[in-house]
Structure formats: C-alpha cells, structure tokens
Predict the 3D structure of the following.
Amino acid sequence: MTKVQATNITWHHGHVCREDREKLLGQKGVTVWLTGLSASGKSTIAYTLEHALMERGHLAYVLDGDNIRHGLNKNLGFSPEDREENIRRIGEVAKLFTDAGAITITSFISPYKGDRDKVRELMAPGDFIEVYVECPVDVCSERDPKGLYKKAMAGEIKNFTGVNAPYETPDKPELVIHSDTCSVQEAAVQLLELLEKAGKIPAPKE
Amino acid sequence: MTKVQATNITWHHGHVCREDREKLLGQKGVTVWLTGLSASGKSTIAYTLEHALMERGHLAYVLDGDNIRHGLNKNLGFSPEDREENIRRIGEVAKLFTDAGAITITSFISPYKGDRDKVRELMAPGDFIEVYVECPVDVCSERDPKGLYKKAMAGEIKNFTGVNAPYETPDKPELVIHSDTCSVQEAAVQLLELLEKAGKIPAPKE
C-alpha cells in the first residue's frame, strides 16, 4: 500500500469522459468524411490535412483503404452487402476515434448516399462532417494513377464507381471541394477553416 | 493563393508517421489486453488505469463490451465463429488505436488462446501486452454483479465461460493480476509500472 500511496493519484473507477480527453488534446473529436470518385484526390487531401493538423499540434488519424481493407475489413468483398458492411464498420470505427477525441479523416469512395447517411445518424450532431471531393469522371479517368479506369472501361473490373456502378452525389455535404480546379493546399485550408468554425480546433496563433 | 501562403504551413502529402503522433502525445502506442473470467475485475481495472493515465496527461482509450458489442460488433452473436470474429475485429481496431499513438486498453473475456495469439501476431513486437486478470471462478460467481453466473448455473445461459464453456489460461502473459487478493489500485500501479518499463510512458516527475 505504501507503493500505491507514493504514486499520489486520486483513484477513479468510472469512465474518463470524452470531454476530459478533448481537454487534454486541445481539440474536439470529429469525423471528416471524404467521399468522391476514385482518383478524385481524397487521399492526397486527407494526408495533407493530417500534416497541417499535426503541425498545429493536433492529433489526427486517417482511415483509408490501406489500413482498413487489409485489416478490419479484409474479410469483405465488393458485393452490395459487403460494400454496405464495409462502410458501416468504418463508420463505427470513426465513431470510436471521434469519441477518443481524435480528428478522424476517412478517405473512401463511399458511393451510396444511404450508407453515408447511416454513418451520420450513428454520430452525435456536429461530429460528422461530410466532404464531397467533386471531380468530373473524365478528369479522374485521365489521372487514373492505378490504371483502374482503363481496366473498368475495358470491362476487366465490374462495379467500378463512375464507369459501370453509380456514384450518388451528396445532397447536403458540409463542404464541396472542386478538386479539378482547387489545389490540394487550398482544399486543406478550406478544411482547416471549417474545423475552426465548427469549434473543433482553435484558430492558429498569429 | 494569398490565403494559402498566409497559413505559413509546410505542405506535405505523405502519411504522418506513428512516431510523429507519439512525439506529439508524449507516449508510445500500445494495446493492454485484459483477459479473464466474467466478474474477474477487468473493466474496473481498465477504467482505473485509464483515469490514472489521464491524470498523468496521457491519452488512453478503453474498448469494451459497451462500445464494441453495441456498435462495430452488433451483428455478431456468440457462436464459435462469431466469437472468433468478435476478437479479430477488436484486435484490428486496437491495432489502429495503437498506430494512432493511444494507450489502448481492451476489456473482454477473450477466453480462447488462439484468438488472443492471433491479435498478438497482428501487432508489432512490444505493442501487445497481455494481462491475465486471474480470479477463481467461485470468487467471480460470488461477486456475480449481473447475475450471469446464477443464470448460467441454472442452465439459462449456454456457453458461459467458466461454467459451461472453457477459459484457456494464457501461457506467457506479460502480467498476471491476482484480482482476488490485489486491490484495483495495486493492479493499476502494476500496469503503470509495466508501461513505464516498456518505455510506453515516462516515469512520473517527482
């Protein structure tokens, strides 16, 4: 018991509140949900925003295909049911990260309005910021960094969003980024300003 | 462009490293995996550790039945396959939180050695700290805060760990907490010391 007293800790058994974690981190938990076509620039915007937040001392975390499809969702395919379950699980994980106080940035095509709306409903009001990364399909298919559009147009990939599967445009996203005309830096600045206005991060010190 | 320049940010497109987040947080990411019978004291230890870490300025997050079974894993039951998938998903989420730099504390019975070992294999060496919360089943069944042992012994609950389903004791856990003789505060101190020795958190300032 001497050892215990020596730590000089007030012992609690209940949960630490989300507010406690947010105070520690100097920010408020939120999910920035980027949605848009393949090659529209979602991931580049996500990583750029993550870096900008880190430079301002904020904890951000990106959920994307790299850490989700090869991990949590590696037992899911691309059937309609599996696509829905894919987005559902990502939404639940984003909710946990948001509750932990992190600025959570998700980068998934997430083509179906219903699936995105379910994630929004899962979260407390203000916790879900939907960002439509808009880019004409012909611009995306010209970029085509992984050659996926080429394969889809040749019929080698089925159910490829924008080619032979639909993308359902968000009705009321919190932000639309026109990534064909807006630079990635400008996009990140728009997102930082949105997070400031929403009270998730403080304005930078001059 | 004036607006962009005014933010005075160095723009990066690549991933922020785990090390960057850990430096920001002043700690190293880790998963403290508590395993043991129902009513062995896992959750009380988890919340007490979380509070103690918070008081020392560390970001910790508890994954438990409350935020997992009603969320991410609400579409899983208690069949052998579903129990395995339950632990697999929790392991993947814990891995993400660990990568984010958080001290992740999981509180699940997780009765099967094979399932726990798979989570350990998922993570980098040193990222997974297995803690066996050992308590004789008769002590647990006397505590029985939710009346579950009573129901299981009456045959009303099938596959209840310790009564009519096995608990596989960890072979080489990083720590064994004898929760029948050790107070929850002593348990938390043992865990804090373990995290200090593992270099996950600095020793407290005198």
The two ends of chain A are 49 Å apart (CA to CA).
